[in-house]
Every structure is written in structure tokens, then in C-alpha cells.
Specification:
Layout lengths: L1 H16 L3 E2 L6 E4 L9 E5 L18 E9 L7 E7 L11 E4 L3 E6 L5 E4 L6 E2 L1
Antiparallel strand pairs: 1-9, 2-4, 2-8, 3-4, 3-7, 4-5, 5-6
Length: 129
């Protein structure tokens, strides 16, 4: 009689961790280097620390290099956010995690493309696990 309860508990715990949440959109459109936003637009250097307020964002430490993949087109009254991932030998655990950050906390150092496309954002752009 205890086994079914244990199995249900385990399934419930696994299911709880499999939840994903679609968060509010930060913008309706974004600028990318290609239609899939897979090309890096630019490299930037963090001017200051940024602590992610929720799962849509990434933490950035002053001095880190940031790969910029997209730039959200701000709506009236909204902040300017970019999407990217950090690069730092000191914080290897953060590398490869893509998220948003305020454009004001970085300075672009190298632009890799001037050819950009403007595409609509989707719910998947603001998906949190």
C-alpha cells in the first residue's frame, strides 16, 4: 500500500520540476542577425553588475564579455533590453545561458553585422524553466 503512494509522490516531484512558465513579453519585436536569432550581433563589455530579477534575465558581472544575440525593440515607456550570454573564464557556470539584460549595463565593443532583421517576438522568447 505504501508503494503506490511513493510512486505518486515521486511522479509529483518530477512533474513539479518539469513546469515551465511563459512570462510577460518585454517587447513585441526584436532585431536579430538572422531569422532564427542564432548569429551573434555583437560583443559587449559589462559596465556594471546586473542581478536578474526573474528567469527571463541573466546575471552579469562588471567586466564580463557578453555575446549579444538580439535587441528588443522597446515599446513606449518600456526599458531597452538585449538578449545574450556571458563569457568569462571565472564564471564558467554561466556560459551558454541566454537571457535578457538592460542595454544600459553594457557597452558594445565589436559589431559583427550591420545586416539585421526585425521579427516579432513569440511566447517562447520569454519562456522560463
Amino acid at each position: 500500500m505504501g508503494y503506490p503512494l511513493v510512486i505518486l509522490l515521486c511522479v509529483g516531484l518530477l512533474h513539479q520540476h518539469a513546469w515551465a512558465v511563459v512570462m510577460d513579453k518585454l517587447a513585441g519585436d526584436k532585431i536579430c542577425g538572422d531569422a532564427e536569432c542564432s548569429y551573434v550581433l555583437s560583443m559587449a563589455t559589462a559596465l556594471d553588475d546586473f542581478i536578474a530579477p526573474d528567469c527571463r534575465f541573466i546575471n552579469i558581472r562588471k567586466g564580463q564579455m557578453v555575446y549579444v544575440y538580439s535587441k528588443l525593440v522597446p515599446e513606449e515607456g518600456a526599458g531597452v533590453f538585449w538578449s545574450g550570454s556571458v563569457y568569462s573564464e571565472r564564471y564558467v557556470d554561466q556560459m551558454g545561458i541566454v537571457g535578457y539584460f538592460p542595454a544600459t549595463v553594457v557597452k558594445e565593443t565589436n559589431k559583427f553585422t550591420e545586416d539585421t532583421v526585425k521579427i516579432p517576438t513569440t511566447a517562447m522568447d520569454f519562456y522560463c524553466v
